[in-house]
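Changelog-linked ticket: benzoic acid example.
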Amino acid sequence: MSGTVIDTQEVKQLLTRVAGLNQAGGDERLKRIVHRVATDLCRTIEDFDVSPTEFWTAVSYVTRLGQANEVGLLVPGLGVETFLDLLMDEKERRAGLEGGTPRTIEGPLYVAGAPLSKGKARLDQDPEQGEVLFVDGQVRDTEGKPVPGAIVDVWHANTKGGYSFFDPSQSAYNLRRRIETDAEGHYRFRSILPSGYGCPPNGMTQQLLTALGRHGNRPAHIHFFVEAPGYRKLTTQINISDDPYLHDDFAFATREGLIPDLVRHTDPDEIKARGLNEPFATIRFDFELNREAAALPEAVVMRDHAKAA
Ligand code: BEZ
Ligand code: FE
């Protein structure tokens, strides 16, 4: 066969009709995007000589990925969620925005509507044999001014790497809270040290990762949304610094500036002063929010979220 099929007039006309480009009506931008995606797919099939059997295997994979509710899991695993972050970083830089706590991916495991409290919270409502963790910090603007009344929405996994709501063995909103910063912009919470998340070993995401020679593990981490009127919403995570997967996250979320020191406390007087009888850990992490401005790209990402009953 000389020449490519994708570049023939017949296929060009086919793809034009597929995207509705040959007729009025519909959304012009969507038409152009669908045209690009359909063209790139067909070109990939031809370039890699994908057989019909291989193609229908892929269709079956995507169908089962959706049925298993794992699309939101594969997307970060393919680096696309991180790519969206890098694009947003670049758009902000071009608009002249500098500083602020780095953003990183939200991931698919947020649940809206966690209990709200002022200044402090305790996250571990389900009893669990874990290392006690105290986290505290201040929300400030980029000039160092405290931000009182900011909402720090925090969520993390338990000692088995499972998230409440998605893991039915945990109670609703276990390890999920919203904390309003006090008059000096401070927040603090008590919890337990999380373990890293791992993709379901027999799931569809892990199936593809295995075929790529990759693991599906994340380092232990704690998620945050930080919001305050007049400021850009921050979506980020901090890592537990001694995790073996710290720089080998299957979801590519580890970033410079998001790895605070994890301090372990073994002094009996300190342990007693905290009302505990075992060593504990602390993390200090301050957030720096950027002011909102008209010229900046939208920072609030609209995305479907679960809500516990
Ligand atoms: C997580 O935040 O734990 C997560 C992020 C991306 C994919 C899977 C899990
Ligand atoms: Fe997570």
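Closing comment: Example verified and attached. The pocket of fe (iii) ion (ligand 2) is lined by residues 107, 109, 197, 221, 223 (CB under 6 Å). The chain is about 25% helix and 20% strand.
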